[in-house]
Amino acid sequence: MPPSSPRSTCTRADVEAAPPPDATFTPEQRRAVEAIAMVADQPVDPHLLAQLLELAPARVERLCEVLAAEYRAEGRGFQLVRVAGGYRFQSHPDQAAYVERFVLEGQSARLSAAALETLAIVAYKQPISRAQVGAIRGVDVEGVMRTLQQRGYVEPVGRDPGPGQAVLYGTTTLFLERLGLDSLADLPPLGEFVPGADVVEALEHGLRVPEPTEPVPVAEHEPEPGADGLDDPA
Q: pLDDT of 136-156, one tens digit each?
């Protein structure tokens, strides 16, 4: 049974919004862009496409926009997008449920929660050293950083000018490509993930250690008048 997923988002509005066929592009030029984007293992720079097709870069950009609009209007399961400074094919967002099922059942080399947390710190704080990442996470991140570097998501980008000149790390083009971002400026603002003041107050209240109560001094027992069996002298 296929996973629950919204059907194609191709609507009448999409069809009506589709640009009319651009006669200035030949079928061969259109097919060439599709073929190159299909076999490329990373986003294709529009300037490279311009050289291969012998067109001006602006014309190549326009051709990619036309193709992308046509795919949207046709309700394809893929789309042509601009990421990391180039163009590539990727699955349509409304097919995420199917793709996620394929990844979960067909792939095993996924990043751990610790690796994802470390990668997020590098993405937002770069350039940053291993020690600085470790200080934020509160654990040794040497092994995780080595894994991220081996997977091609982070790379050395310089050295800290301070004492020790620690190696500084930043994210790679592959990181942008995998997240579908054109640049780091497209990262969502961290402010969207900061909880509200009421939530912070509730969390602080829940984590607060109750202050120990001071022991109540035991008052010396004074026998009530007559408690000792003697009459009140008054």
A: 988 888 888 988 988 889 999
Residue appearing with tokens 């997977």:
151
Alpha helices in 74-141 (DSSP H): 96-106, 113-125, 130-137
Instruction: For residue 35, give both structure tokens.
Output: 């073929």
The C-alpha atoms of residue 128 and residue 167 are separated, in whole angstroms, by 8
State the helix-helix crossing angle for 27-39 and 46-53, rounded to 10 degrees. Answer: 130
Q: 130-137 and 113-125 helices cross at what angle (nearest 10)?
A: 120
Residue 34 tokens, joined: 């599709």
Q: What is the pTM of this model?
A: 0.48
CA distance 49 to 47: 5
DSSP conformation class of 42? S
Asked whether 186 and 199 are in contact (CB, 8 A), the reply is: no
**Sheet with 167-171, side-by-side order of all strands:** 128-129, 167-171, 154-159
Contact 148, 160 (CB under 8 A): no
102 phi/psi in degrees, rounded to 5:
-65, -45
Task: Give the model confidence (pLDDT) of 158-193 as tens digits.
Answer: 998 887 888 999 999 989 888 888 888 888 887 766
SS3 label, residue 174: helix
Coil vs helix vs strand at 66: helix
For 52-86, b/e burial (b = at least 16 CB within 10 A) is ebebeeebbbbbbebbbebbbbeebeebbbebbeb
